[in-house]
Amino acid sequence: MTCICDEENAILVSAASAWEISTKWRLGKLPQADGLIGALGAICRSQRFEPLAITLAHAECAGALPGPHRDPFDRMLAAQAQIEAIPIITNDRAIAGFGVRVLW
What we know:
The chain has a single domain, classed as 5'-nuclease (Rossmann fold), CATH 3.40.50. The protein has 104 residues and is mainly alpha-helical.
């Protein structure tokens, strides 16, 4: 994806993504993430990706988002995208239902 390769773009990685990866790995739903657990911060730094913390405003927005999409991680990502006015890179088309810009 050219937007990730373009060094002019800041690439943000949400704390919600780390939380989701770790949770799914712990539950055995994402065993291929074994090498990421405990190393995600270092991997992001090596790629010059910037962490995006979860704020109270993000949490309030995620909890209040309308719509049938119930995944709490996706709701948080959508809330962060809305508040920070940034697109989300995902192949999950349901996230676009939150009114955020989706790239893929």
